[in-house]
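Spend some time on the protein that follows and explain the fold to me:
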Amino acid sequence: MDYKQFYLSALGQVNRKQWWLYLVLPILVVSVILSAIDKAIGTVDHESGAGLLSGIWALITILPSILVDIKRWHDRDKSGWWMLILVPIIGWIWFIIELGFLKGTEGPNRFGPPATA
């Protein structure tokens, strides 16, 4: 799967390894670096605690994050709409457990063949 298909499409599936290594880890690392740069150059709003660069990064990554999360739900044989149900009702802890730690379905499911690492 090329990077356009991975980050800019909701079609297909993404396994746990791909989700952690190609979505969560890069976003966290860049967020930490940009937060440090924001503090160093003084672009942090002290009332909200948000920095200019890290805020722009958050806006840039929101759509790709949603699309990759939808594919991760597909690997679990669930619709991407589960994101809207679980996050507001059950919370982020279950979201992380479901996408980050629970194994996807064995073999093909209604969303297609399993993701390969």
About this structure: Residues 16-41 form the longest helix (26 residues). Helices lie at 3-8, 16-41, 52-75, 82-89, 92-101.
